[in-house]
């Protein structure tokens, strides 16, 4: 019985200490002097946000608590997809979300994308001028170095002047998606590749009427190039094989002017190539596919022009090489 009383006494004492500790903590938090830096709140927000949709909805509620929390969550937003944007909204985009690294403006049918880019440039320049009091060259752009990814899919009105401004504003782009932006010339594409030297992924699907044959400079960091449903031909592939030797993935679906001669150029020169898509490339004949694959040991995936049945021996060799054929 004595042991039982002692144990109860100790438990009661522990509860008293815990209660006093909690009371003191509550008093500290309730005082006006209590302050938690934004960096600590950012850690809390990052902990709550693990990428699940439910957590994203919770963070929206969290950001509605106060302007301080809204500012914190805005600083932690790195990508954004905008639907039905207005110039006023877009011009202040980087002021509200200063750490954006990715923007998606798919199906933006505004009359002039150039106006949107100009409004961003003007907004950033004004902010810069307020901080530095003056800008040496009023015509120069204040760059936005943190943006790494830009999607401008189905923007049929984007032209070379917009592309040139994109390159000036976002010189550190690593991914540029211009699918269905078919009013861009090859000179505009060349300008981006020269100015944005860090580009690794370029998507020009259904965007080119020209053939990119005028490229006379190297693009050593380019790893993924999508030329599906463009007018590229063997001459284009020869140029690409000389200028883009670091390619890992080349997508040529629906390139009807390509033959095995052009494909062979790429496979010979691009020593790291891991995937090539030849779907609907009707001039690449089935009987040379196996030899093309075996000529590039690094190849891990090939999409054939049409359904082609490899022989048992060829399938065995493909398996040894680790190449998937689909």
Automatic annotation (TrEMBL):
Superkingdom of origin organism: Eukaryota
Stretch forming the signal peptide: none
InterPro entries: Leu-rich_rpt_Cys-con_subtyp, LRR_dom_sf
Membrane-spanning intervals of the chain: none
Gene3D superfamilies to which the protein is assigned, alphabetical: Ribonuclease Inhibitor (3.80.10.10)
Protein name, entry field: Putative leucine-rich repeat domain, L domain-containing protein
Species whose genome carries this gene: Medicago truncatula (Barrel medic)
């Amino acid at each position: 019985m004595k042991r039982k009383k002692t144990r109860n006494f100790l438990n009661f004492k522990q509860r008293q200490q815990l209660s006093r500790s909690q009371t003191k903590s509550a008093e500290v938090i309730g005082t006006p002097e209590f302050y938690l830096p934004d960096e600590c709140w950012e850690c809390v927000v990052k902990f709550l946000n693990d990428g699940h949709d439910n957590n994203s909805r919770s963070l929206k509620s969290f950001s509605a608590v106060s302007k301080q929390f809204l500012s914190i969550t805005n600083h932690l937003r790195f990508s954004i997809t905008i639907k039905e944007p207005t110039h006023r909204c877009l011009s202040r985009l980087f002021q509200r979300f200063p750490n954006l690294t990715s923007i998606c403006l798919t199906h933006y049918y505004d009359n002039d994308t150039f106006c949107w880019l100009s409004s961003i440039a003007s907004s950033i320049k004004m902010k810069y001028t307020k901080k530095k009091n003056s800008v040496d060259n009023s015509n120069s752009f204040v760059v936005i170095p943190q943006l790494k990814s830009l999607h401008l899919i189905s923007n049929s009105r984007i032209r070379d002047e917009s592309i040139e401004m994109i390159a000036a504003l976002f010189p550190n782009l690593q991914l540029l998606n211009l699918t269905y932006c078919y009013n861009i010339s090859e000179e505009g594409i060349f300008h981006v590749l020269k100015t944005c030297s860090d580009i690794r992924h370029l998507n020009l699907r259904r965007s080119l009427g020209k053939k990119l044959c005028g490229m006379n400079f190297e693009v050593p960091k380019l790893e993924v190039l999508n030329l599906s449903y463009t007018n590229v031909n063997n001459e284009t592939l020869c140029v690409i094989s000389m200028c883009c030797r670091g390619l890992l993935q080349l997508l040529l679906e629906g390139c009807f002017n390509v033959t095995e001669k052009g494909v062979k150029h790429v496979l010979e020169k691009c020593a790291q190539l891991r995937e090539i898509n030849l779907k609907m490339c009707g001039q690449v004949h089935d009987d040379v596919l196996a030899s093309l694959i075996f000529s590039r040991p690094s190849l891990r995936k090939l999409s054939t022009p049409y359904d082609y049945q490899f022989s048992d021996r060829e399938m065995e060799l493909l398996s040894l090489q680790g190449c998937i054929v689909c």
